[in-house]
Amino acid sequence: MSFSRESKLEILECEIEGADESLAFLSGLFHASGQITKNAEGLRADIVTDIKEIFDVTNNIAKRLYGGELKIEISDDYIINKTAYYRIMFPYYVSTRVLQDCGLLRVGQEGLELIYNIDQNIVADEETKRAFIKGAYVGCSTSSIKFSELGSQNNTTGYHMEFASHNKLFLEDLKDLLSQFNIAAKLFERKSIFVLYLKDSETIKDLLALVGAGESVMNLANEMATRGLRNTVNRQVNCINANINKTVEASLRQIEAIKYIDKKIGLESLPEDLQDVAVLRLANQQESMEELLALSTIKLTKSGLNHRFRRLIKIADTLKKD
Q1: Which residues of 106-115 are buried (b: 16+ CB within 10 A; e: fewer)?
Q2: Which CATH number fits domain 3-212: 3.40.50.300, 3.40.50.620, 3.10.28.10, 3.30.460.30?
Q3: Domain residues of the chain, as ranges?
Q4: What backbone torsions phi and psi does residue 150 show, to the nearest 5 degrees?
Q5: What is the pLDDT of residues 90-133, one digit of tens each?
Q6: CA distances from 59 to 68, 72, 259 (A)
Q7: 296: left (phi > 0), else alpha (psi -120 to 50), else beta?
Q8: Residue 76 confidence (pLDDT) above 80
Q9: How does DSSP classify residue 267?
Q10: In 3D, which of 242, 237, 248 has the Cα closest to residue 291?
């Protein structure tokens, strides 16, 4: 199950209490994934979603506030990537009232008019704002976050969460709503839809906490810690490998210089202090500087040993030029 779906199911497990909070939740849900159908019977308000569990929550709200039972069916119009979508249908006799109460429909001079902005009367206080964001989150949020598999070395995706909608005004107001909780999001247009997105892991954690997905916050925090530990280990391994490569390259250069000197003028022509380190290196070609010092009977520091090898390399370079 995806991280996004798990967080939505967690939110839906918490009962929404209070009429104002219930309407705010429905308003966010309708803005995010609602549809209005009109025929001879009148207007019908629908929710189209791939989260079947939304039905129980909305049905309970509908019964409590309007005394109506909702219906649910698999939507033939929405089968995307082999994912079944459900159509949650409000009865005709309450649909218009529900949409008006949720701030999506009003009676204007030319009859009923759709409202694309978030009705500020619906989100008048902190609790109703939270409830609205919950509805919007459940209705149209998606995430590309994938958790690391135990022992896996494969790269995982970054931290990305977004709300997608054809209604730009809704997302602009939602962006402002989130900013009131210090949650920064960015809005852009992708082809024919608009996307409000968050890419910072801490910001996503704040959003999850805001909508009451505490377990998802913990799961995300654990994932961040796992990735952080893995990145630290990778950096350490890369550093070790770099040092090994550096040591091997230095050793090969030293050996090459010593062999060239031996071939051209013989090691016996070198000063005694250079002869000692030359013989030591030829006899221990794989060892590091620290290991050479441990094997040597000569009292030298690492800096002193390096200095003698540089002298040998310089002599070899001079011989090559001559």
Answers
A1: eeeeeeeeeb
A2: 3.10.28.10
A3: 3-212, 240-321
A4: -60, 125
A5: 999 999 999 999 999 987 777 788 899 999 999 999 999 999 99
A6: 8, 10, 86
A7: beta
A8: no
A9: G
A10: 248
User: Are 9 and 51 a contacting pair, CB within 8 Å?
Assistant: yes
Question: Residues 241-259: pLDDT tens digits?
Answer: 887 788 788 888 889 989 9
CA distances from 252 to 6, 184, 282, 299 (A): 56, 54, 10, 23
Kindly report the pTM of this predicted structure. Answer: 0.70
pLDDT tens, position by position, 277-321? 888 888 888 888 888 888 877 778 888 888 988 999 999 888 888
Q: Phi and psi (nearest 5°) for 298?
A: -80, 135
CB 55 within 8 A of CB 161: no
Helix (H, G, I), strand (E, B) or coil at 155: coil
Q: What is the maximum alpha-carbon separation in the chain?
A: 109
